[in-house]
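$ fold --in a.seq
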Amino acid sequence: MNQELITQTREMFDQKANIKYSYTAQPGLTEEVVRKISEDKNEPEWMLQKRLKALEIFHKLPMPNWGPDLSKLDLNKIIYYANPESIKNANKWENLPLEIRNTFEKLGIPEAEKTHFAGAGAQIESLSVYHNLKKHWEEKGVIFSDMDEALQKYPDLVKPYFMTQCVSPGLHKFAALHGAVWSGGSFLYVPEGVKVDLPLQAYFRMNAEKMGQFEHTLMIIEKGAQAAYIEGCSSPIYNENGLHAGCVEIFVKESARFRYSSVENWSKNTYNLNTKRAIVDKNGIMEFVGSNVGSGVTMLYPCSVLRGENSRADHLAIAFAATGQHQDTGAKVYHLAPNTSSTIKSKSISIGSGITSYRGLVQIAKGAVGSKSSVTCDALLKDEHSKSNTFPYMKINEDKVDVAHEATVGKISADQIFYLMSRGLTQEQATQMIVSGFIEPIVKELPLEYAVEMNRLIQLEMAGCVG
């Protein structure tokens, strides 16, 4: 691969934009910061009380003492709220300040929206700066807006779902933290029977040092409706740690279908501690497709709750860990009704001293007869220093079910490299070809432009790591 291309492409993600801020909170989490967020957004009293209750729960819950080491994450040094100066949420890119528009143009977001998406959103720090839905879908009753706007315009839709049924602040410490300081995010509502045939997109960008980003994504797919959504995430490299603790809540109603995809490329000084959950009703289908390339530490386990008979969940994921990274990812599926089914396919790549871990849960409730679940974990190791772990947990409370688990670990062999080099490839090109073939079953499920980005990101991470 051309070294000049590698350098240019890497800078696309790592370069900080020169953005001025109208308000930046002091580092550390206080009630004053929580009240400031709610006041600035002119939120209803019930949301302020929800935030304060979450803050109370946050202070009571301990830090996770399992999984990756979080001892270097100092929550008192994180900035929990910052707003770029003089920016209003726009529905035209040209209405944004030049510096912010340039940031997203470098990432290719406006151009992709024109041809590939039914709508798009963008967020910098704590503020959604752009949201737009094509008129065709507006006329069919589809709502796609940033979360702050949805709270103002559609409170009767938001209140019954927001951190009540799907993700509660008491789930874990970072869910509580999110409930206290959430800001921005995406809201999607697809009416009964409407099938959105192009995906919707959102891109979340952290720009400031020591920043925390806590976007909230709430999606309601009504009976018989269909839609797909994809998000990208990135941040520049700094010496100080950043934190991403977003939350995704998805409701797939009877006979509806929804696909949620993400390509997360946070910088290696970022802790990515995200929470994603879906509740699926009768005959509904939920699909999670995810890739994690960046961040120093990731703890992410998308969850599907199959509460309706004949509902289904498919989880596909790829994690990549280079030196200094620990990607602790997986999936959770709860089978609560008869004849539910789930498929979990996880692939991971470790190079240098990188660590990947699959951590998963499949639970089948008593009475969920006829349920089926298949879990497959494949790990690829680049060298003797890289590491892969698998921590599957299955709790089966019903006899009349079908459950399977398979895990494999392989190393890129010298014979494979030699064969490809004998066909004219360099050692680096040969290694990248093997890796591309390994991840192809996951990458092919992403929209084209994100599949290209995913392959490119892994090539960039592997550049110079051969030998």
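$ fold --in b.seq
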Amino acid sequence: MTSTPRVPGVNAARAPGVSAATFRRVERAAGGLATRSVALMDERLPWFRVLPAEQRSWVTLVAQAGISGYVVWATTPGPEYRITGEVFGTAPRDLVRAVSLRRTVELVRIAIAVAEEQLPALAADQPESVALRDSLLRYSREVAFAAASVYAAAAETRGAWDARVEAGVVDGVVRGEDIGALSSRAAALDWDPSADTIVVAGAAPPGDRAEAVAAVAEWAAAAGRAAMAGVQGDRLVLVLSGSDPPGCGVEALFGDGPVVQGRPGGGLRGAVISAADALAGLDVAAGWPDAPRPVEADDLLAERVLGGDARAAERLRTVIYGPLAAAPTSLLPTLDAYLEAGGAFEPAARRLFVHPNTVRYRLRRITELTGRDPTEPRDLLILQTAVILGRLSSATSTA
């Protein structure tokens, strides 16, 4: 029995024993097989039925290119034929975003199943049918690897784009950009612009910026909260979702030096305020060498005032001095006496002509009103600073 002529240049390692006539029949059958594959996709995959018509047409073209590409792959010697470009190059980038890798695998599986079912019947004899089936199996493996490459490249591109958008949003938060513009960019990252936020700032770790941001993403995933990060000069700024403090472990994301967390706030507007607090605290954190790590920006209010932070001064006047001055009991004179007595109850009571327990009671009331405990040295410093600022402001307004 004479052998059937082979296609010139056929690569025996890819399709040994398959004739040129069979390859031509495969090429002619590509359109019908693609149509059959799409019909099965529509029958078996509910999500495929609801795809827009344009995307379904692109899937049909990819399926047809994949079946036609088998002939080129089998008859092209060496590595010249690239499945990624020849098969998936017909699809627009939007299709990769619309159809996930898992769903692409489902589509490929159906298309290959149709090819394995239909194409061997086009062979001239049984040995050639077996050879055709074997080469189809190898080709399907190459298509699967090519699909993975397409999605890996798309993921890298998407990741790079996301990183640029994320850095832009963090920069906008730091600079206090328009909230509308910030919200639209944050929405592209699936960030809820209305969610509570808290900002943490510190020295950027040594090394590549991208590695620092990637470390934040890993930490946030483990902590179960959304995060955006950006390196601003020599500083790393984190925007975290939720109002809870970041907790242990966040300090490891930063380089040496203090780490300051701003007050939690609502939405991106709150993030702008929190970032301003955190960065202002970071500027003066050296004034408290023994500060915890991280330290709250409000615990550095005294240092921030000395550093010229007008927002910190206003907060001390509003949150601390205002409630004390408006209190019906003699809280301010009690605080004055306690300060003059060097933080001792008995001398303060003698100055006020009251029992020491009365001093203790009034100091507890101060704590309840302001959140600052006069018996704690750091809180006492903040209280004293607030009282000085409040009185200076009152004197200026009445002058």
